[in-house]
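Writing this down once: the sequence line spells out the residues, with the fold written below as integer tokens. I am pasting one below:
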Amino acid sequence: MRAGFSFEDDQLGERGWFVDTDALDESVDRCAERLAGGAWPEIFDFRPSFENVAKWAFTDLAPSIPQLDYVELDNETIGVTTRYVRSH
């Protein structure tokens, strides 16, 4: 799983950060652990297609990642990446 966010120059803090990467790591790790916690049909109460799970992951991560733009999931079995993009 990958997550991407955007920022502008005036949003960088005195340390040159837009977001605390330690907090970001915790959020992404927690979400990834849930995805790896078992078969998706057993984890989710919706049809767990890659599209639906990418949307779920975005919704899960958005409150803790300012200006989250997308979440990507890799289907390593068939070599496809699914990306859910924030609605504008």
User: Anything to note?
Assistant: Strands lie at 2-5, 68-75, 80-85.
